[in-house]
Design goal:
two-stranded antiparallel ribbon, 6 helices, alpha+beta
């Protein structure tokens, strides 16, 4: 979007038309606030390299039917013969937000499963360092889950022979 000093839309590209669900004619001349709800920090942009800009701010947009659209916004303000203008670019974050919520729910479910069993369960990375351990695994091995994280699992499980000498790690 290109906006004037009063934040009216002067120009919109095809991506903006698709994002907001209106034709260019339906968007141009409208106040930008009818399309997005900018955060409080928007009114106080930073100055960098002699240009006033807003770097990557999350805002909410409004689609054609009033549905909320999570957006990532970047803007640069400049002057031309017609006065102060701003160029604002938006990225639709809908899919990203949905994926984050799905990941959060899956993580919560996994935590419930891991923490509700009496079976010891732990995971390791390619270097055989512990990446997670449920409370049962930690209790069985005599550690807390936090003490196990990042440790060589071989050292935690097979640390010593009966005579106290270390058991060598197989290659």
């Amino acid at each position: 979007l290109i906006l004037n000093a009063e934040r009216q839309v002067l120009q919109v590209n095809k991506a903006g038309e698709r994002l907001f669900g209106h034709s260019a004619q339906g968007i141009m001349g409208r106040p930008c606030d009818s399309l997005i709800e900018a955060g409080r920090e928007s009114g106080n942009p930073q100055t960098q390299d002699g240009r006033t800009r807003i770097d990557l701010e999350e805002v909410s947009g409004h689609g054609r039917d009033g549905e909320r659209i999570p957006l990532l916004r970047s803007a640069v303000m400049f002057n031309d013969l017609d006065g102060a203008l701003s160029l604002e670019a938006f990225i639709d974050l809908t899919e990203r937000k949905q994926a984050q919520e799905k990941f959060r729910r899956l993580s919560e479910y996994n935590d419930l499963v891991l923490n509700s069993t009496d079976e010891g369960i732990f995971g390791v990375d390619l270097e055989m360092r512990c990446t997670f351990a449920n409370p049962a695994a930690a209790r069985i091995l005599g550690y807390s889950p936090q003490e196990m994280l990042g440790q060589d699992i071989h050292q935690l499980i097979h640390a010593r022979n009966e005579d106290g000498s270390p058991i060598p790690r197989p290659d």
